[in-house]
Amino acid sequence: MWGVWAIIVFVGALAGHAALCRLPVSGNNVAKFLGVGGLAGILLSTYLISVYGLALTTWAGLFLYMFLCELYIFSFTLVHSSVSASLLIALRAGALTDQEIHMRYSDERMVDLRIGKLLANGFLREGDSGYTLTDRGRLLLAIFRRLRGFFRHSAREAADDRLLARD
Amino acid sequence: MLAGLQWIVWCGLYLVGHFALYTLVLRNRESFLRERVIFGYHVLSAVALALVLLGTAVITAREEVLIETVGALSLHGIYSLSFLELWSLSEAGYSLRILGELDTPGGAPKVDLALLYRLGSSKKESRIESLQRLRLVRRQTQGVSLTPLGRVLAAALRAIAKAVNVKM
Q1: Taking the CB of residue B122, how many other CB atoms lie within 10 A of it?
Q2: Of A89, A91, A165, B21, which residue is least crowded by CB atoms under 10 Å?
């Protein structure tokens, strides 16, 4: 039953999040889910500990719940921001020509949408001279530049360039 | 309680070992700069962990093995999903690239948005190619369409979009 409870509580958190996304509540979708999912997680922990104690079953149930939550956050942020996900959903209605794809996902619209989100989330600010990074934006960029170095993405791009030059 | 803690420690050590192997050895190899190889490294590890746990269950005939397997795979899933998401975002996050382009002393004037628009164009082309490689879309005479696999994934994504009230 521990696994079933983890799934039931997760479905409850999804329903709560779906309702919250339809109410005039401020905050982005991730923050809303962290609120609902966190509360549901506390309820699940309380239930599992009261029934099983701090046993293997409790930990397994909590890890299962946390994994489902992370997978869900990953999925809805993907739907919200990924060009690929948006294109896949659009293609459900039928094939699109290259021209239709270009019109639907014009470069200007895509960039404007991203800039709008960066402004709304406090990573950018718009001034008289144009867009500037906020401290939050600079911190995010610094973190991801470090990660980029750690994962050696620049080395891969250099390898790709070498291959292109050889061709 | 101790049995539970011991199990978590073993799982944690396995994941720390997996990460350490990548950090100290594998990330310096050219093949591990590729998305497909990184993804395979995580999937194979999860499959191996599941096989070891199930094999142990057959040998020892313990009842807790299902609980251990679900818990261990969930922990592995949390670790792998976090790792792969950070890998992917730091590689090609569109918003991060915009932030990078605007990270100049005093900010970037609005006219420089042309540069960002070119970034959007290259991103779009590479995404269609990626979807083709993953066999989610195909090019036909009438344009780009979904494959059966792409149709399943698109339906799942649409359901999620509906749940979180995202207008597509």
Answers
A1: 11
A2: A165
**Given this model, what pLDDT does residue B92 score?**
67
Share of chain B above pLDDT 90, in %: 38
- Classify burial at A133, counting beta carbons within 10 Å of its beta carbon; exposed 0-12, middle 13-18, buried 19 or more: buried
In this structure, what token pair is assigned to residue B157? 């994504």
Are the beta carbons of B78 and A66 separated by less than 8 Å? yes
Decide if pLDDT at B111 tops 60.
no
Distance from the Cα of A91 to chain B's closest Cα (Å) equals 6
Q: Do A95 and B110 touch (CB under 8 A)?
A: no
Contacts of B98 in chain A (CB under 8 A): 111, 114-115, 118
Picking from A75, A95, A124, the nearest residue to B160 by CB comes out as: A75
Q: What is the pLDDT of residue B124?
A: 62
* pLDDT of A154: 78
The DSSP element (H or E) to which A56 belongs, if any, is helix A56-81
Whether the per-residue pLDDT at B110 is higher than 60: the answer is: no
pLDDT of residue A63 exceeding 70, the answer is yes
State how far the Cα of A125 lies from the Cα of A37, in Å rounded to an integer: 31
Q: Retrieve residue B126's tokens.
A: 């590479």
Q: How many helices (H) and strands (E) are present in chain B, helices listed first?
A: 6, 2
Contact flag B94-A66 (C-beta cutoff 8 Å)? no
Distance, first Cα to last Cα, chain A: 59
CB atoms B112 and A89 under 8 Å: no
Contact B151 A92 (CB under 8 A): yes
